[in-house]
Specification:
The structure holds two protein chains of two kinds. Chain A has 20 helices and eleven strands. Chain A is an alpha+beta fold. Among the domains of chain A are: about 160 residues, Four Helix Bundle (Hemerythrin (Met), subunit A) (Up-down Bundle); about 100 residues, no CATH class; about 110 residues, no CATH class. In chain A, helix 1 packs antiparallel against helix 2, helix 2 runs parallel beside helix 6 and helix 19 packs antiparallel against helix 20. By secondary structure, chain B is α+β, with helices and mostly antiparallel strands. Chain B has one domain: Beta Barrel (OB fold (Dihydrolipoamide Acetyltransferase, E2P)). A five-stranded mixed β-barrel of chain B has the order 2-4-5-7-6. The longest helix of chain B is centred in the first third of the chain and has 26 residues. Chain B is elongated and about 70 Å long. The chains are: A alpha+beta, B alpha+beta. Chains A and B meet through helix 14, strand 1, helix 15, strand 2 and strand 8 of A and helix 1, strand 1 and strand 6 of B.
């Protein structure tokens, strides 16, 4: 499979060529060179695709002469996880990332080949530079086709914790998000270089941005789900550096999808928008740097490697170029308009952006803190969960407050009577809702705030839609349902955005439920004994075993009752993996009983010779709404994307 | 307008600065190996620390009825006795390297949290 490596080498050369040809084509105004650059970009895509296929083929055929195959798979590994091993290791994941970059650039070049955009050659040339960097990493530092000096009979196997359905989808979606932010970044740099800082670059990059954002959102949620079902501690987020690393670009990316609307509508925040998207891009690289360089010790076992230095240099170069460009284009970055009133939509967006940035800086600071203290005082000092919670809880509450009131404001200035008319019913409703919560015994202050603002968000959105439908019904003489449809159709983008907000509210509710109202117990039960949690009665009835191809499984059967009614059985498991050349590793497979109200979550922690077993049992209220919320957000974004692609088509016809 | 904005922004920044400061004060923990810990034992007694080491083979003891886990950590030199109330994490076994977070007192490290080293193999191997 040396061929795979040569293909990558050729792709690397082609990306150097497309960078050069694009740049000199633009400079010398030579169309032939620009055309050659485009061909070279197709070529990169083609070559890297074949080498990815080669690596997949080596994995599937269990070619243990390759170091990568031997390190991340073995003969017993099920086929689906054998394929997922493609992105399980450093070399493979970098190749995968580089592959996504070539796909994005080729797709961009192809879709826009007949459109007249002055930014076009700039964008794919800048994108080529990023592709060049990643292909350089693959070729020079982590070649996935590296041979072992001697042939192994079997591989070391894939880490059992990575043998989980979420792990098939979590890394690729995350990488899709990371790699996807390269195009918007290239657009921003192109706009700066070209000196065209009107909202043209935002119009052209918006769909790519949304795509990257939703991939990152899904990737993060799948990561949380993996931690929840696989790591067996009952939680989904621990402020680990690696988790933070993928949250950081999400925060700035989310700020960006809001602030770009301000520039489009009011031509403000020009400099802010380019800064935000470049920060987002740098944070995706920083995330990779944190996870690969070993600069921060975390739960994740990092070894130090020189690849970190390369990332650092790359980030430094981009930052320098960016600062020079900002300085150079300072005049053109000044917006002509200003915020006129505090009661305006642009001000609420401004505030939203400010808060997102504060949160990002706080998390970045907390994540990098051990590295700073190591440099300055020679000791690594970590900041624990308390630090992160202390900052993210009030900021999170402020964000959901903004989320709930933002739709009440109009652009420029909101008239007082209009604001009151829009707000009165939702505010009354929310007050009633909070009173009901108080009566039903909820006294936790922060929960009341979050649940109250959640209710306010939902009621503001529904009040707006219903009021719109009623006034349309009166003026158009139609049935209310028809008016409702027309109202929703009249501004798909806005109402899909609200759908995304509803999804966020669901996630908020899940966070409150699982953090404030979680119940947890650890207990050792003899066979036949029972315990209770919440309304549930749990009887440990028997232990069993099973032998799979790649693991031995020990099971514990728990019968679940509510009162005297039997609800079903939960069977948590302990897995003892057999691996070709690796060590035997134990993991536990949690058992879950999930409904709209709560998750009953059982971990089979240990067992004794007398068949008594220790369980960790959790009751996580509202947990499922996190995943439903994620689904709703995805639907909202897909509607926006489909709508705007269709819109573009009809406009260009 | 600008004046109000500056005052408002200033207040928010002050609040955030306070949150930063108090959060950092309450949650700072030192990262140490077992040997480093013993070298500065007095300094760290009663203070939050995260100690990293290998489990001494045969030292794991699990009292299922009282849910108490005890084991020993080492980097090859001195040995640290660790006690933890509650079950061990999933991948806890003699072969793995662990990080314990907690406080030292009465000759025992009382771990509030036990973390085993990461599932991802992304990191490059030490050559």
């Amino acid at each position: 499979m040396a061929l795979g490596f040569y293909l990558l080498l050729a792709a690397f050369a082609l990306s150097a060529y497309s960078t050069w040809a694009g740049a000199s084509g633009i400079k010398l105004n030579k169309n032939s060179l620009v055309k050659n650059a485009q061909k070279a970009i197709y070529g990169q895509f083609f070559l890297v695709t074949i080498s990815v296929v080669f690596l997949a083929y080596s994995l599937i055929t269990r070619d243990f002469s390759l170091k990568y195959v031997a390190e991340y798979s073995d003969r017993q590994l099920p086929m689906i996880y054998t394929i997922s091993a493609l992105w399980a290791g450093q070399a493979g994941s970098l190749l995968f990332w580089a592959w996504l970059l070539t796909i994005f650039n080729a797709l961009y070049v192809f879709i826009n080949r007949n459109r007249q955009s002055k930014l076009y050659p700039y964008v794919f040339t800048i994108h080529s530079v990023v592709t060049l960097f990643f292909l350089m990493l693959v070729v020079y530092t982590s070649n996935p086709f590296e041979k072992l000096p001697h042939l192994l009979p079997d591989g070391y196997g894939l880490n059992p914790l990575l043998q989980n359905p979420e792990m098939i989808f979590h890394p690729p979606t995350l990488f899709l998000g990371f790699a996807g932010f390269t195009l918007p970044f290239a657009f921003a740099l192109a706009a700066l270089i070209k000196g065209n800082l009107s909202s043209e670059w935002l119009d052209q990059s918006r769909n790519w941005t949304l795509f990257a954002w939703i991939s990152l959102t899904i990737g993060n949620l799948l990561g949380a789900q993996w931690a929840y079902v696989e790591l067996g501690w009952g939680g989904y987020w621990a402020w680990d550096p690696v988790e933070n690393a993928s949250l950081l670009p999400w925060l700035t990316g989310t700020a960006f999808v809001h602030s770009l609307m301000v520039q489009k509508t009011r031509d403000m925040m020009r400099g802010w928008n380019v800064t935000l998207i470049i920060t987002t891009f740098l944070l995706t690289i920083l995330g990779t740097f944190i996870t690969r360089s070993g600069i921060i010790s975390s739960v994740h076992a990092f070894g130090r490697s020189n690849i970190g230095t390369l990332f650092l240099v790359f980030m430094g170069v981009i930052l320098t170029v960016f600062l020079i460009l900002i300085f150079w284009r300072w005049q053109k970055l000044q917006s002509k308009t200003k915020v006129e009133s505090f009661l305006s939509r642009e001000f609420s967006f401004l505030l939203n952006n400010f808060i997102f940035i504060v949160l990002m800086v706080a998390i970045l600071w907390g994540t990098m803190y051990p590295a700073f203290t190591e440099i300055f005082i020679g000791k690594q000092i970590a900041l624990g969960e308390i630090y992160f919670n202390k900052i993210s809880v009030p900021i999170g509450i402020f964000l959901i407050f903004l989320l709930s009131v933002c739709p009440l404001f109009s652009w420029k200035q909101t008239k007082n009577n209009k604001l009151i008319k829009k707000a009165i019913i939702p505010v009354i409703g929310t007050t009633v809702f909070i009173i009901i919560l108080l009566i039903s015994g909820i006294r936790h202050f922060n929960s009341l705030l979050v649940l109250g603002f959640s209710f306010l968000t939902v009621s503001v959105i529904f009040a707006e839609i219903i009021q719109g439908a009623i006034s349309r019904k009166n003026s158009h003489q139609e049935k209310i349902l028809q008016s409702l449809r027309q109202v929703l159709k009249s501004n798909v983008r806005r109402y899909s955005g609200y759908l995304v907000h509803l999804g966020m509210v669901m996630i908020y509710v899940a966070i409150v439920g699982t953090t404030v109202y979680k119940q947890e117990k650890e207990i050792t039960l003899p066979k036949g004994a029972q315990t209770t949690i919440g309304d549930y009665r749990i009887v440990y009835s028997k232990m069993g075993e099973r032998h799979d191809a790649n693991k031995d499984v020990l099971t514990a059967e728990l019968v679940i009752y509510k009162g005297d009614k039997k609800l079903g059985v939960l069977i948590p498991e302990r897995h003892l993996y057999k691996s070709g050349m690796g060590e035997r590793q134990q993991t536990s497979e949690v058992a879950l009983r999930s409904n709209l109200k709560e998750d009953l979550y059982v971990i089979f922690a240990s067992y004794q010779d007398d068949e008594s077993a220790t369980f960790k049992i959790l009751l996580n209220p509202m947990m499922i709404w996190m995943w439903i919320g994620g689904f709703v957000i995805t639907v909202g974004v897909i509607i926006i994307l489909v709508h705007s692609i269709r819109d573009k088509k009809t406009r260009s016809m | 307008m600008n004046k109000k904005l500056i005052i408002g922004g200033g207040i928010i920044l002050l609040v955030v600065a306070y949150l930063f400061w108090s959060g950092m004060k309450e949650s700072s923990v030192y990262f140490l190996t077992v040997d480093e810990f013993f070298a500065q034992q007095e300094e760290f007694t009663g203070k939050g620390a995260r100690v990293n080491g290998e489990i001494v083979p045969g030292s794991i003891n699990w009292d299922a009825h009282n849910l108490i886990l005890t084991f020993q950590l080492t980097n090859g030199g001195k040995v640290l006795d660790v006690r933890h109330k509650g079950v061990a994490p999933d991948t806890f076994s003699e072969d793995v390297s662990v990080v314990v977070e907690g406080k030292y007192g009465d000759g025992i490290f009382h771990a509030t949290q036990i973390m085993t080293k990461c599932p991802s193999k992304y990191e490059a191997k030490k050559e």
